[in-house]
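Letters spell out the chain; backbone shape is given numerically. Take this protein:
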Amino acid sequence: MGQISLQPEPGMSEPVGDDPRAAAVRALIAGDAALALQLARLARATVGDTLEVLYCEAAALIACGDPEGETALQNLRTSHAVIAMKAVEIDIPRLLEDSTYAHGVGVSLYNGKVMGPAALALGRAAANPASAAHAGLLQAQALHAEG
């Protein structure tokens, strides 16, 4: 298993100028959720479905009070965790089927302070009664640390 970087992924940068990503973030910060949502959707159309654009759209949906925002955010967090785990060659099918493997992966990610993927792996590990208590405790701590 490789090391997961806590640095932004390639291509994820601070949007500047008239970039719709930057405008959407500025609108969120200014409290204009409806404008932020429009700009995030414009960003998806022009920049594509990058993680940063999708997170911005989910945040705007939540800020608008749309219950789909919570679902979008949860799905995005799961997808992002899987992308990060695949990047370091974690065997995702095995993670889903082998709770002992999931526990080892989860503990390793937790110790590396990579909390989103750790929480996902530890959730799978909790299916094993032999490790459920430990996995559940670490998963709760990872979710707490993640925010």
